[in-house]
Structure formats: structure tokens, C-alpha cells
Amino acid sequence: METNNFFKVIRQDQTYLNMLYLLMSFPLGIFYFVFLVTLLSLGIGLAITLLGIPILLGTLWLWRMFAIFEYQLSKMMLGIKISFVPKKQPKKIWKMIQAYLNDPFTWKSLAYLFIKFPLGIFSFVVLVTLLSVSLSLIATPILYYITKMGLLQGTFCIEAINICFINSYFSAIVVAIIGVFLLLVFLHALNGLARISGLLAKSMLESKK
User: Fold this and answer.
1) How many helices (H) and strands (E) does the chain have?
2) CA–CA separation, 71 and 62 (whole Å)
3) Residue 146: which residues within 8 A CB-CB, separation 6 or more?
4) What pTM value is reported for the model?
5) How do residues 5-33 score in pLDDT, each as one tens digit?
6) CA-CA distance, 134 to 154, in Å (whole number)?
7) DSSP state at residue 48
8) Where are the alpha helices (DSSP H) in 46-168?
9) Are 186 and 134 in contact (CB under 8 A)?
10) How far apart are CA 22 and CA 125, in angstroms?
11) Tell me: the pLDDT tens digits for 43-95?
């Protein structure tokens, strides 16, 4: 990786779009999972009374719409090129249902929406953890100053073994510099995670003639 590209990541718009995408994956993943589990369970449970059939068909149509939304989201926010060619659907309802059931996109999109749940949780945890660690280190000089002024109760030492990690302004600044370096590394890592998420969407949501 070139040095210029390493530092450029912090001022690239795509970096923040990637982070927003990863952040949005968490609530969207939870919503898809709860929606699908609830309506599919309800539809299957009521299928014997025939009331479940329209629920299942409506759920099928909706999850296809959610998958198309995910396709658009990945395309716009991540810049992933995904080929999506809508297939011409028959006008008659029964033939349309048959076409949906025979369309691989229907079942691949269902699998993708379920995968979005654990992927969204993982993305959220990684994003929050990496940013929290790096930003906390960057803020160390300010926290050290506030502590020295007596405005904040706390210590940077482990008194039980008499070890101080930060005992001067110089060491606090060194820790902040390390935090800046880690922030740059973490931003590249988050870009990589967003790229993987986009490629997963491409592999499962791409639809060609």
C-alpha cells in the first residue's frame, strides 16, 4: 500500500459511506430477521386453514422488494457494480407466482436477508470497537490534562502492581499518535469489511438474463 493512499483514507468520502453502510446493516439485519421469522412462521402455521397462503405469498413478494432495496443500497453506497435485470413477469397471478418460485433470485435473496442478520451484528461490533479504541487513544492527552486539573477522577496507573501507563504529557501525546496510526489502519480495515459485504451482495443478488 502506498504511503499516500494510506493517509488519504481519512479524507475520502467513500470511507464514511462505507462506515454508514456497516452501521445501517445492524438495524436492517435485525428488521429482516424479525420480519421473515414472524411472517413465515405465521404463514406456515396458518397454511392448513388456507389463510397462511396469502401471507406466505405476500411475504415472498416483500422479501424480493427488500432484496432489490439492498441491491440499490450496495450499488449507491459501496459503488459495487451489480448486474440486475428485472425479468418480465406474466400478468396472470398464478403464472406470476410460478415464475417467482422458479426464479433463483427469490431463494438467493431470502438467504441473503437471513445472512444480513449475523453480518450486521458483526459489522456493528467491529465498527464500534475499532473506532472506540482509536478515538480513546487519540483523546488521551485531553483526558490526562483534565485528570491533572482535578476535573476528572481517575488514574492511568495500576496501583496494585505500581505501573503507570501514562505519567507525563509526552507519553500521553505518544499514545495519541499511536491512536491516529491505528485509526488509519482501522479505517482501511472497515473499508475492506464493507468491500466484502458488497461482494457478498453482488454474488447473491446479481440477476442476469
Assistant:
1) 7, 2
2) 14
3) 152
4) 0.84
5) 788 888 899 999 999 999 999 999 999 99
6) 20
7) G
8) 52-78, 93-102, 104-138, 140-148
9) yes
10) 10
11) 998 888 888 889 999 999 999 999 999 989 998 999 888 776 666 666 677 88
